Fold this protein.
Amino acid sequence: MAEFLESGFLQRALAAGILVSGLCGVLSVFVVLRRMAFIGVGISHSAFGGVALGFLLNVSPFWSGVSFAGLVALLIEWSRSRGRVEEDTAIGILFSASMALGVLFLHLSRTYNVDVFGFLFGNILAVGQGQLWEILALAGLVLAIVFVFFKEMVFLSFDEAMAWVSGVPVGFLRYLFLVALALSVVVSIYLVGIILVEALLVVPGAVARNLTRQIRHMAAVSAAVAVGSTVVGLAVSYWLDLPTGAAIVGVLSSVFFATLGLSRKKTHRLA
Amino acid sequence: MGTAVEIRDLTVKFNGIVALEEVDLEIKEGSYVGILGPNGAGKSTLLQVILGLVRPTRGRVRVFGEEPEKLRGKGRVVGYLPQRPLMNPSFPVSALDVVLMGRYGRVGLFRRPGRQDREVAIRSMERVGIAHLAKRNIGELSGGEQQRVFIARALCVEPRLLVLDEPTVSLDACAQDELYDLIAGLKQEMGLTVLMVCHDVGAISRYVDDVICINRRIHVHQPPPIGRMGLEQTFGCSVEYLFHGEVPHRVVRGHDG
């Protein structure tokens, strides 16, 4: 254990992992309750295009990823609100187009030393001090947004029409939440990678929903499940020499299946 | 008494398809108005225009003298019961949490509901007879209890206008009657203007002051009773009768002119 905590890169990995997973755990509540799982997939995969663009233009892939994913998130919401394209269709088109662009950008950039595998499946052990600060800043920003607008976000998730009638700025909050989601997705790429980010956005909320009956408890349990699974996953990957992203998602999924039985008992009378 | 809702020459189109056309309507403050019409006739659209959820393609809408969009920001005039208020039955909130949402418009951004808001919420729940269910999760309640929670939420706004979109649609006959009695009582007690979309002609003729029959265009009746001849004359088209409630009545075709 001491050895695990002594080395600098493991400490940074642990700190980054806790921050990112706690953040995703909180957002996961809304992703699950608002049935936005597919949007999460769309945004995370879109980030690939942005990251690759960063390599092509020789700018920070982190910030180009954030911008690109944020832009795609806004485009998804914009096309939904215009009502011309179904939301899931818009997501399907934008995310595959972004990934295709990503492949093209990587091809054009001709940088063969890029850790594409790391972006796709996560490489938390490569997080440096500067990136840790970026993660801390973005996690703080997103958590502050959620804290400030928590009651409106719950209302919006529960009953959008009524929220609108009550004067809640529904349109603004929908965009804001998607931007928050895009920011979180990009910081999560360090931890589990583009392909596996979805697990952090969906599973903690799903577990918490199995276990709780009150939304604040659900948020707390969701964050705790995400952080706990990440710490356990990191430890497992360290001792068994397994890929960290996959280990974390493996732990998360196991927790979900373990709690599935509990939810049956709780909700049988709701059917 | 003033005018609660005033609509002049209203037309609403969705992607070029006409949902409502040439609607002129005036609803007096303190009246109880029922809205009848076949599926797809524009009943919900009319409510949504009044609530400011849908923008008119043409025409003028005023609610208590103001544009609905401006009114909504104030969050304290219109209480609304949507047609399917519980989209997600296992949403982890208690009945009291749901009722408190009615206060959010008044509370505003960046603030949390205070003690006074909780008191108003609990009083609203007492009014509709569900104070004892406050701590229960919304999904665990019966359909009738849930509708009462949503009516309590609408009352929690402390509204002048109560808008109900098919409040009894999923209830059994007994619960339906109870709910109609409850709404009529609340209207009297609180001096509300009530606007209710409803399929139950029997209930409508028993409780309401005016009936708006709607099928893209509208016609206003003053029951009771809604007579067959009267309907056919005023609509200028054939009316199919279904035995449903006390007064069998169903408009089946569009009738332009």
Observations:
- The first helix of chain A runs from residue 2 to 6.
